[in-house]
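Blackboard transcription, Thursday session:
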Amino acid sequence: MSFIPGQPVTAVVQRIEIRKLRQGEHLILGFSIGGGIDQDPGQNPFSEDKSDKGIYVTRVTPGGPAEVAGLMMGDKVMQVNGWDMTMVTHDQARKRLTKKNEDVVRLLVTRKSLEQAVRHSMM
Amino acid sequence: MDTESTYSGYSYYSGRSRGSHRHGERSRDRHKSHSKDGSRSEKSVTINAPPAEPLLGDAAARGEEVQDDNWGETTTAVTGTSEHSLSQEDIVRITKDLEDSVGLDCRRYFTLTLSVVLGLLVFLTPLAFLALPHLLWPEKLQACGTACEGLFISVAFKLLILLFAVWALFFRAPRAGLPRVFVFRALLAVLVLLFVISYWLFYGVRILDSQDENYQGIVQYAVSLVDALLFIHYLAIVLLELRQLQPAFSVCVTRATDGETRHYNLGQLSIQRAALAIIENYYRDFPVHNPALLTASKSRAAKHLAGLKVYNVDGEFPMTPSTGPGNNAATGLAQSQSRAMIAAAARRRDTSHNELYYEEAEHERRVRKRKARLVVAVEEAFTHIKRTQEEELKKAPGDVMDPREAAQAIFPSMARALQKYLRTTRQQHCHSMESIQQHLAFCITNNMTPKAFLESYLNPGPTLQYGRERWLGRQWTLISEASVTSGLKEGALFLLKCIDFSLVVTAKRIPYIQLSEEFIDPKSHKFVLRLQSETSV
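(Written on the board underneath:)
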């Protein structure tokens, strides 16, 4: 999951579609995010490369829409509905996920186990 | 022919454009008049003016124009006797002037004699108290023992201290003459007088009449008088000197002619004393008043008004302003006319801002060019002379000059550039040739660089830097609605008028400041890296 500056980022991603759940007047997705280009990347427990400033899933509420859709803790979010999430601030990431007029968010997430699975399948 | 012409006040412009050159004028105005006529014809208001009017307006405007033309060049603010005074002369010189002048000032002498009489009375009273028993009933008097003689020494020294203290506080050359009496001093004098009189009364009744033999008691009485006088002196110090030291008011002083503003902090003073403090600060802080710099705005103002004239087609000639408050019809007429003039002035397309902009840019360019030439000329002039040391004097006794001669030698090479620069910045009447040469000699003597020499000509300095005829120290008038011996208050307003300018002074109280404390433990300065923030979505 490290990147070489100037080169396009390549990763094995999984497409996850989450349907937002209406709770009162909020639409919730059921997970928490951390990270961003304005945050301290050294504190991220999930990243391999401690200079990675991407958006990571830090917690998934059990039984929530995210868990149902297959999101797991430690996933790095690469795209949300087509918007890039590898170089955004924390607040921009939150805004892209919580748009009020969208009922469904389609995430592209990557995790280490995906890459291992692909490698295994190729062998 | 004039049915098309617009405002008759401009007829002299139009007259000029038709080729009648009556007097010399700047070519720029001639160009302007063409454009003005051209642009105005489509917006003109047709007024059937009687044919006699253009000539009248013409002559009046022409007279004004002539005055305006030459006014800036030939005005002199004061008729100076050429006195050489170049260095920073202190206010003390002004007071020396006051003392030197023959005193037709009765009030000053009256005050002086009163204070001398009071002083003598105060000093001789204890001595009289001590001496009178010896003179009047020496045989009945008890002998003076050791304690008593000790008291003599105490009286002597206290009187000596009192003498020095009074000399230090009161025996000073008067700084200024104030319009009203100094209230605190008068009160103190009255207090001292009453005090001494009451002591004399007591002495006269209880000691002289009964011829008391207890000399020690008398001496102690005299000592108590001197003690009390020292305490009154302490009171005088507090009232006269200490009370106004703590700042309580912030006064804003604005010069009415050109808007120079300064702010000062003053203590609790009466209006006249505050005025004195402000004038003393004026001489230090404000740049000198130069009436030649104000002519530009005056001529612009004249041009604004010259453009419009009101004609009443009903037959009256409303040229004179309304006379007297009883003339209601005329005042109503005049008011409507002035309103009409204001409305017309607002409507016409005025290009005087353009003129001002270009004129100021041009003037600044000219000043900069002259300044560059001046700086180069002065620097070159300064290279012509050099200081000689003692040994060189003996070796080559050539043409050795003292500073004044050296100044006269190098002055001609820079005189022209300096004169032109002063003319451009309209300072030429502030500096005479002798004062410039004296300043040059002064700079040469003190090893100053050309830049230091030029400093006093490039920037207008405080009034004291110039000749004594500019000081006008005796011409100040205090104009105030409140009594001048009353204290400064919040919102107090008074004017200080000199001959051709005035200072507007307003006072504001310094706000009460409430200061609170916050303690920071030095160990509390700790830092961590910013944590990952986690947001649930």
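Lecturer's comment: The first helix of chain A runs from residue 65 to 69.
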